[in-house]
Design goal:
With 192 residues, this protein is an all-alpha fold. 72% of the residues lie in helices and 0% in strands. The N and C termini lie far apart (45 Å).
């Protein structure tokens, strides 16, 4: 029963579409009709309102931190279930006909909640690749693969399986970006 309750609660927390809520509330716009149509932080930045963009980023990170930290201290043996459910909530929110964001900010919240070092590894790779390319999508994909590689090098094979699955999911959510990158049609992102 604990598994089910925690899974559902984590999913529902992860499924809160902050990008959509903030753009509707403060800009009277539907973020799904802006830029890529995605509800995440990168597209929220495309509204032209940096405060909305960064607020979406922080809230999308926080909505993973809350359930994962709770589970970490109370039910540590099912932390990966809570993490996966929070991520899936963001990517496939029930409120938006299962059409959500790409999960990167939520994944960052998961990483920092599980192990700060993993979060830092992700952020360092993301920033490095972004400074070189200015592509948020490419930065996210490379930073995502860096985590299971680091864990494998550290010899934690069982943990690496979970993070490899997370990489596959992020790769999947970025499939259209990958096509655009391949065709040199991907938009560069301004974050400041």
């Amino acid at each position: 029963m604990d598994y089910l309750v925690i899974g559902i609660a984590s999913y529902l927390m992860g499924s809160i579409p902050f990008g959509l809520i903030l753009t509707k509330l403060f800009l009277n716009k539907d973020i799904r009709e802006i830029g890529s149509g995605n509800i995440g932080a990168t597209n929220a930045l495309r509204t032209g309102n940096k405060l909305i963009g960064y607020s979406t980023l922080i809230l999308d990170i926080a909505k993973a931190i809350i359930p994962v930290i709770y589970v970490k201290f109370n039910y540590p043996d099912i932390i990966y279930i809570a993490s996966l459910c929070a991520f899936l909530g963001h990517v496939f929110p029930i409120w938006l006909k299962f059409n959500g964001g790409k999960g990167v900010a939520t994944y960052v919240g998961i990483l920092f909640s599980i192990n700060i070092i993993l979060g830092l590894i992700f952020v360092v790779f993301w920033v490095f690749i972004f400074l070189l390319s200015k592509y948020s999508s490419l930065s996210s994909i490379i930073a995502s693969i860096s985590v299971p590689i680091y864990i494998l090098i550290a010899g934690q094979i069982n943990d690496a399986i979970f993070f490899a699955i997370m990489f596959i999911l992020i790769f999947f959510t970025h499939r259209e970006n990958i096509k655009r990158l391949k065709n040199k049609e991907e938009s560069k992102t301004k974050i400041y």
